[in-house]
Each structure stands twice: as structure tokens, then as C-alpha cells.
Give the backbone structure.
Amino acid sequence: MKVARFTFNPFYENCYVLWQAEGGDAYVVDPGMMNDQEQNALVAFLDEKKLSVSAILLTHMHIDHVAGARWLAQKYSAEIMTHVAEEPLGLQLVHQAERFHLQVDTRPVTITRYLRQDDELLLADEPLRVLETPGHSPGSLSFHAPQSRFVLT
């Protein structure tokens, strides 16, 4: 599995693109883009690699990790996936933005698929295993790619 990392927003949040081959599907993990420049940087990369985003995976739903999730999901008709315990955070984005004086889209992010411990997502032919890692938030998740030997936390 190939991995590209982007660092977005004033919090220097890491966003990852996972893919197997150019011209295929991709997962985007924690799309925290908060402005047009950040959105354009991610889309330029996806276009260059001819990738289609099939899923948006959220480690948790703090605003710095989800600010671009709704926009990206609409652009690529992609699912948004995270743990059910994160849903309250997704409904409170306006409060999170106010706390940090952020001027971003704060409409609630709709989770289209709930993930839990040991769920397995396939990207092309490689599994990505879901790990529940609560602590930073109630439903924090990590994503383990055993064949490629990495974990996104």
C-alpha cells in the first residue's frame, strides 16, 4: 500500500492518502483541509495519480481532522467512516470552531458507515484493519496495514 502525507490547517494536522495503484481507488484519512489552498493541494495530488476517493476514514472527529470531510465526500461521492462514539463530536463542530476562532464550515459531518474493532477494509487486495484506540476521544480509531507494516493513529 502506498501512503502520502499532507499537513493541513493551523494545527498541523496530518492527512493521509492510501492507494495501491495509479488510476485506482484511494482512502483519505483525516481530511483536515480548512481552505481552498489545502483542498486544491489534495485534489491536485489525487488528479496527478488518477485516484478516486472511495472512502474517508476518520481517526476521530475533532474539527482539525474533519474540516474537509464533507466537502471531499461530496466531491468524490465517498463514504465517511468512523466509530459510532464519535458522532456527538461530529454534531458539535460549531462549538469546536468557536473554541478556536476558526472560520470553517461547521455543518455536522454525517457518518455513512460505523467502524469497530477488527473490521477489515480492503483497498484493492490489501486489508486495512480497524483498531479501537479510545482516549484522545471516546471512539478514536487507528488503522493497521499488516502487509505494508504501518499503523495510522
Observations:
- The mean pLDDT is 96.
- The chain has five helices and ten strands.
- The chain has one domain: 2-152.
